[in-house]
Design a protein that fits this description.
Blueprint: H1 3-8, H2 10-17, H3 20-38, H4 41-56, H5 58-74, H6 78-114, H7 119-145
Helix pairs in contact: 2-5, 3-4, 3-7, 4-6, 4-7, 5-6, 6-7
Length: 161
């Protein structure tokens, strides 16, 4: 298997991108926060763009995860399968928050372009929503890490998963 074959595998693409809505969003929120505190309009716009890109990256991550699910599920033991199901449930819960953050960041960027007086308030709203998205993405990633890493499983998967 060469690297082109790997790139065709949705599980591999999921693994390549799944850190963007976590680590990337954290960096984006820091940039946005610094832009607000320093009252630097260009940095605020940069932060909004980064938030939109990194929170929006949750969409392809979820698509590739859904596509990889059957193949991954078949190769897991009972606990791994339960964790995979739980990972999918947690992702489904938090994805709307990440999507809302993406839309809010894009809307704030556009609104701030036309009406500068709205920019700071819009950035604060995106920062709050982005923090919620970061928490959600971190939870999704934590559960996802337990799927194929028994050493990270400190408890059994929640019942009903």
């Amino acid at each position: 298997m060469d690297w082109i074959d790997l790139l065709a595998d949705p599980a591999y693409r999921h693994m390549l991108l799944n850190h963007l809505p976590i680590v990337g969003l954290l960096v984006a929120l820091i940039v946005l926060f610094i832009g607000l505190v320093a009252r630097q309009v260009p940095m605020q716009f940069t932060g909004l763009a980064l938030v939109a890109i990194t929170a929006g990256a949750a969409w392809p991550v979820a698509q590739y995860g859904d596509a990889a699910y059957p193949a991954i599920y078949d190769g897991l033991d009972g606990h791994g399968r339960a964790w995979l199901d739980h990972h999918a449930e947690v992702a489904e819960t938090w994805l709307p928050v990440l999507y809302a953050t993406t839309v809010a960041a894009i809307g704030s960027f556009i609104a701030g372009t036309f009406k500068r007086a709205l920019l700071s308030w819009a950035c604060v709203a995106v920062l709050v929503l982005g923090c919620a998205s970061f928490v959600g993405a971190t939870l999704v990633g934590k559960v996802g890490g337990q799927v194929q890493h028994p050493e990270f499983r400190l408890t059994d998967p929640p019942r009903g998963s």
